[in-house]
């Protein structure tokens, strides 16, 4: 098998990164744009000793689960890898991804139920992050997502997985940035003004928070005027902020953000609690699906405990802590990001929550020094999961259940293996579909210590 070879293959399975899996004489081929049940002609893009990567160039016999994508840009945009597969089968494939990870990595035979579907499968994405560049000759602004495995921007005029107002705001920026002397970013030369546009969108009231990420360390007059023009153009825009990121990095947001006009936050409601979300605040991109997760965790605690002491670790703005506070005796929340902890304190006051204790500290450091024990520990770590030391400490501090919320089945499985080796028992794992039409899947694992 060599690069650029074209082969005909039957797609047998699905990988955890959203590729169809085929075998030719035992040799594994990962095929982009293919669904189990397809027969396709695929072009080899990379060949190794043990496996190859390929791209579908023609569907000979389609799977019964193959559908026409509802977005015209699906094949060139890297955001919605699975949009050509019907939604119910997407959920089944995601269930299989979780099941395979738990079985092969954690060594556990646990029945994984069907994922809880997203209430919305279109217009569900309420945080968008568009990289910005410009054409070489005409200097026309480009805004969109990167093509898969490249840093080439697909100039997206309409994205059906985000609110329609976001398209209009981005189009205004694309059309009028040059009127204010704002240039697009050149990644190779590290030059130009506008690196990204980030929009947070509220389900509650349709308000938008626009953040212009610029290649600068302080604001400047033409940028301020452009920010005000965006605010004046759209009644839906609650505020326009500027984030400063002049570093040579792939990280989107820098540490410093300044509100130029309007409010520096939008509001969102979850389980009858109001949350303020600012530019640097971590908050789930699919609030309706996130609410299903918070309700699931709250209901579990209420059904199994009478006013427990709860630990909320890797807490962000203490969303879990605030949502479960009314069924808890006390919630101790731990988050290392200062802005998030300040927003959590503010949110607790807004919602009149008085049994929430908030710590601005690295979770691992907090665990080491903590002497109290908790009935329930909720851990919601980043995609890389927990360190072994943190797993050891959470196990030590918990006397009832650990509720592990994860966006990565592989690191969840790795950490569950560590917990079961210490004697914990995984009682259940429930997937939730937070990112429709992608291979990503959120999970809530209930673990008896």
What would your notes on this structure say?
The protein is 25% helix and 32% strand. It has helices spanning 87-104, 164-176, 221-233, 287-304, 319-324, 338-350, 363-369, 388-397, 409-421; strands at residues 6-10, 13-14, 20-24, 27-32, 39-47, 51-61, 127-134, 141-146, 153-155, 194-201, 208-214, 237-244, 256-262, 265-270, 273-278, 309-313, 330-335, 356-360, 374-379, 398-406, 425-432, 442-448.
Structural class: alpha/beta
Mean pLDDT figure? 96
Gyration radius (Cα, Å) is 23 Å
Could you estimate the helical fraction of the residues in percent?
Answer: 10-25%
Count the E strands: 22
- CATH superfamily heading of the largest domain: Vaccinia Virus protein VP39
Q: If classified by CATH, what would the architecture of the largest domain be?
A: 3-Layer(aba) Sandwich
- The CATH topology of the largest domain comes to Rossmann fold
Give the number of helices.
9
Placed side by side, the strands forming the largest sheet appear as 9-8-7-10-11-12-13
Largest sheet geometry: 7 strands, mixed
Number of domain modules: 3
Unreliable residue runs: none
Q: Indicate the proportion of strand residues.
A: 25-35%
Distance between the termini: 49 Å
- What CATH first level of the largest domain would be assigned? Alpha Beta
Describe the SSE topology.
Layout: E1 6-10, E2 13-14, E3 20-24, E4 27-32, E5 39-47, E6 51-61, H1 87-104, E7 127-134, E8 141-146, E9 153-155, H2 164-176, E10 194-201, E11 208-214, H3 221-233, E12 237-244, E13 256-262, E14 265-270, E15 273-278, H4 287-304, E16 309-313, H5 319-324, E17 330-335, H6 338-350, E18 356-360, H7 363-369, E19 374-379, H8 388-397, E20 398-406, H9 409-421, E21 425-432, E22 442-448
Parallel strand pairs: 4-6, 11-12, 16-17, 16-19, 17-18, 19-20
Antiparallel strand pairs: 1-5, 2-3, 3-4, 5-6, 7-8, 7-10, 8-9, 10-11, 12-13, 14-15, 20-22, 21-22
């Amino acid at each position: 098998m060599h690069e650029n070879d074209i082969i005909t293959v039957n797609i047998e399975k699905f990988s955890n990164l959203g590729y169809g899996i085929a075998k030719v004489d035992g040799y594994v081929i990962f095929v982009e744009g293919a669904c189990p049940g397809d027969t396709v002609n695929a072009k080899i893009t990379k060949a190794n000793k043990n496996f190859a990567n390929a791209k579908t160039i023609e569907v000979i016999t389609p799977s019964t689960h193959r559908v026409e994508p509802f977005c015209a840009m699906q094949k060139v945009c890297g955001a919605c890898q699975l949009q050509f597969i019907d939604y119910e089968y997407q959920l089944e494939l995601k269930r299989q991804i979780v099941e395979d990870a738990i079985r092969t990595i954690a060594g556990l035979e646990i029945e994984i139920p069907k994922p809880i579907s997203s209430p919305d499968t279109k217009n569900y994405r309420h945080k968008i992050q568009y990289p910005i560049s410009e054409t070489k000759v005409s200097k026309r602004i480009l805004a969109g997502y990167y093509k898969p495995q490249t840093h080439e921007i697909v100039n997206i005029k309409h994205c059906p997985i985000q609110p329609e107002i976001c398209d209009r705001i981005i189009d205004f920026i694309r059309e009028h940035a040059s009127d204010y002397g704002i240039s697009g970013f050149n990644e190779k030369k590290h030059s130009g003004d506008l690196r990204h546009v980030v929009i947070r969108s509220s389900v509650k009231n349709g308000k938008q928070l626009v953040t212009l990420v610029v290649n600068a360390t302080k604001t400047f007059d033409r940028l301020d005027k452009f920010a005000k023009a965006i605010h004046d153009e759209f009644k839906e825009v609650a505020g326009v902020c500027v984030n400063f990121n002049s570093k040579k990095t792939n990280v989107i947001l820098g540490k410093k953000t300044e509100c130029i006009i309007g409010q520096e936050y939008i509001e969102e409601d979850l389980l009858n609690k109001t949350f303020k979300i600012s530019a640097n605040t971590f908050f789930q991109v699919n609030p309706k699906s996130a609410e299903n997760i918070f309700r699931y965790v709250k209901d579990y605690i209420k059904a199994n405990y009478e006013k427990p002491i709860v630990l909320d670790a890797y807490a962000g703005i203490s969303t879990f802590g605030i949502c479960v506070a009314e069924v808890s005796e006390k919630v101790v929340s731990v988050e290392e990001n200062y802005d998030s902890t300040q927003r959590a304190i503010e949110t607790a006051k807004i919602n009149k929550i008085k049994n929430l204790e908030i710590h601005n500290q690295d979770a691992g450091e907090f665990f080491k020094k903590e002497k109290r024990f908790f009935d329930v520990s909720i851990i919601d770590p980043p995609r890389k999961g927990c360190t072994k030391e943190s797993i050891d400490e959470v196990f030590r501090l918990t006397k009832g259940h650990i509720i592990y919320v994860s966006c990565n089945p592989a690191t969840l499985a790795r950490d569950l293996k560590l917990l079961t080796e210490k004697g914990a028992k995984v009682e259940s794992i429930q997937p939730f579909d937070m990112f429709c039409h992608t291979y990503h899947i959120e999970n809530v694992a209930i673990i008896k210590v």
